[in-house]
Amino acid sequence: MLRVKHFAWIILSLFCFCFLYINRHLYTLPSSSAAPSTIEKKILDEDNNNQMGGKQASLSSSNSLLIAETIKKYIATNSVVVFSKTYCPYSMKAKNVLSKYKLKNYKIVELDQVEDGDLYQNVLQEMTGARTVPRVFINGKCIGGGDDTQMLENKGELKQLLTNANAIEL
Q1: I want to staple 93 with a disulfide (CB 3.0 to 4.6 A). Which of 6, 38, 146, 157 is the partner?
Q2: Mind listing the domains of the chain with CATH numbers?
Q3: What's this protein's family per the entry (predicted)?
Q4: Where are the beta strands (DSSP E) in 18-161?
Q5: Are 149 and 158 spatial neighbours (Cβ–Cβ below 8 Å)?
Q6: What is the pTM of this model?
Q7: pLDDT tens profile 130-151
């Protein structure tokens, strides 16, 4: 009986280890609380290069450049841009605050519905210092996220920013 229990624990331990190992390598997204450290990025890049014969890093870098150009284009051609996720309560907060105004040249990019949404977030982190959504841009400047947008509205400053950006339809 003792051997059966011991064997069961070994099987359970192996199962847990395999499950964690597979999840770690299939889902290499950084945690929501912090981006991966420089060392973690280097390890992930080396793993990707080893697995893909060096092609993964250049492909990822190429995609990042294309996405950075796309983001810059959105920001340059629209008075207001929100990089959002459909299920995020902070994104909903920012969009609800902005919906009080009749905006022109307003773009919402739902990162959970676009290809490479995680790469968009990585590029936005490089541009703004934060990886979280939403990222709200008015007149080419990032004003922050949902709480920041709400705070500006509460202080009466959001309408002035939108007016200065010529973003409100008359």
Answers
A1: 146
A2: 60-170 (3.40.30.10)
A3: Belongs to the glutaredoxin family.
A4: 80-84, 106-110, 135-138, 141-144
A5: yes
A6: 0.66
A7: 999 999 999 999 999 999 999 9
